[in-house]
Write a structure and sequence with these properties.
319 residues; alpha/beta; Rossmann fold; Pantoate--beta-alanine Ligase, Chain: A,domain 2; 2 domains; 7-stranded mixed β-sheet; 3-stranded antiparallel β-sheet; 11 helices
Length: 319
Amino acid sequence: MSTASVMAPTGSDGGLDDRLTVLDTVAEFGAQLEAARAGGRTVGLVPTMGALHDGHRSLVERAAAECDLVAVTVFVNPLQFGNPDDLDHYPRTLAADSAIVADAGGHLLFAPALTEMYPDFPTPVCTSVGVVGVSEAWEGASRPGHFDGVSTVVSKLFAMAGRCRAYFGEKDFQQLAVVRTMAHDLSFPVEVIGCPTVRDQDGLALSSRNVRLGPEERRAALVLPRALGAGAAAIAAGQLSVPAIEAEMAGLVAEEPLVDLDYAVLVDAGDLTRSDLTRTARPQRLLIAAQVGPVRLIDNLDPRQAVPSPSFRITKGTN
């Protein structure tokens, strides 16, 4: 086991030392969180794959506002990458990540080696976790095995962490639904908290993958939030035909030659099945995914929170 510390903001709550402790073993990570609970502290968990940005910062800040001790995990999970090139190019910026976590109010950073999480790697694990139904469409259909990898690593982190509140961004909306279902079905003592998408000033949802976009690709990617806004505007204007709403989004994306649309759909926000606006009053969600240059981007929107205009723009911190 090895640990390291970097300076964190002053004034940490609950008598904690004003330093961020970096851990790399499962045993020490679990022991630290168990000791915090034994001392009467509540624990917040923020699982990440690193390459942190302001979206991740918002999760840490939310956890710090609601919990006594905040633990952030940084682990690039190979089980959720179907494309080896995507895994190889995923940015790894642990020093910068540590500074962001410390500045946002985190207390522990768990950054295990690959063999700490999967001792027999690259031999496949004998036990994996799959969530049927909610994981099978959309990203699940386009990226076979992806959500099994997500569910497996998150279940391991939940088992290591113990009772806590776990914070995930709504930007990966299907992932959030998968994790919530898994935590419920497997009776993990974890409350899963969804946090609003954080966006750049031009409306693009923050993502660790955005750094791989060239200038023209970055500009082209803005069609995704515009398409979501167009779908929301159609709903606000009284459109009840789901195919028409989805066609409105797809048509807008088709005007951008650098973007290859995978799907643009309206779904039930609970189970992610296709919606029928003429028969339901349940909350809805607009989902979109596309390839932009070398990068696959996803985004989503609650149409009730959108400005009903085809020229829709989202400001940072809203969803």
